[in-house]
Amino acid sequence: MSAAKLAVRLERAQAHLDAVRSYHAKVDKLVTARTPSDPGMVSGIRRTPSVSADASADALLARYARSLDRLSAAERTVEAITKQLDAARAEEGRVPFTRDQIVGADAVKTSTGWRTVRKVNRTTVSVETGFSWTDRIPFDQVLSTYRQGD
């Protein structure tokens, strides 16, 4: 995906994260406001059992847990898109290797790893596969080169 499209996705994800943070802050305020003020409740001694109060407290804690899950998911999404955007910007700024730079290399690095060079063609590099055939890799997919003497 292009860096421009990723930037738009990141902007939307940031806006979503801000909204989720705001919602979580509201729920957090509700939870902290419901902290027991009766000293008997803190010690575990309840004056009178209340089914409706227990149900209300359970619902509030479940709401808090869901908002916390949504918050962490939104943060992970923003982090993942940021990494993708950084990689896309680095790829856009990368200058592809030329034939002269690859000639004499013993190995080339691609997105799949290091491969041993068999032959440098006009626009591709033939690399060993470990089988009876060779793969051709275009120069723009070469990330790095290795020479034995370097």
Strand order of the largest sheet: 4-3-2-1-5
Strand content: 15-25%
Reported for the largest beta sheet, the result is: 5 strands, antiparallel
Following the backbone from N to C, one meets helices and strands in this order, namely HHHHEEEEE
Q: N-to-C terminal Cα separation, in Å? A: 35 Å
Note the total helix count. Answer: 4
| Low-pLDDT segments | none
- Give average pLDDT, whole number: 85
Domain tally: 2
Provide the structure class.
alpha+beta
Number of beta strands: 5
Share of helix, binned: 40-55%
Radius of gyration: 29 Å
Shape: elongated
What would the keywords be for this entry?
SH3 type barrels; 150 residues; alpha+beta; 4 helices
